[in-house]
Amino acid sequence: QVQLVESGGGSAQTGGSLRLSCEASGFSLEYYAIGWFRQGPGTGREEVACIRFHDGKTHYDDSVKGRFVIFGDKDGNTVSLEMHGLKPEDTGEYYCATVGGPPFGSCPGAADVWGQGTRVAVFG
Description:
With 124 residues, this protein is mainly β. Helix content is 0%, strand content 53%. The protein contains no helices and 11 strands. The strands form 2 sheets. Strands 2, 4, 5, 6, 9, 10 and 11 form a 7-stranded mixed sheet that branches. Strand 4 and strand 5 form a beta hairpin.
């Protein structure tokens, strides 16, 4: 069964840091691109970061450039998102998803398989 599971959400003060993880099962991330999407209160999902395992290409939305870092672990079949310098506008539900089509996905790209999401709240 193809599945993505996020973890690591929580609360942080403005300026703080959090790390999110996305673990894949049922398929190897080596042949995919994975995007992290944020859905704020009353808004749609927007891609904030993406990585393509094939060549390590990454892409960041302007709102998180210089603050967020996305990286992958082939052995662990996981993708992590390190978030620094958090702002209240970073609050929302964060989802990871496969993005782009075969053979290796694309960054940015259209989402296909989604995880269930993990919540991030930034306050203060």
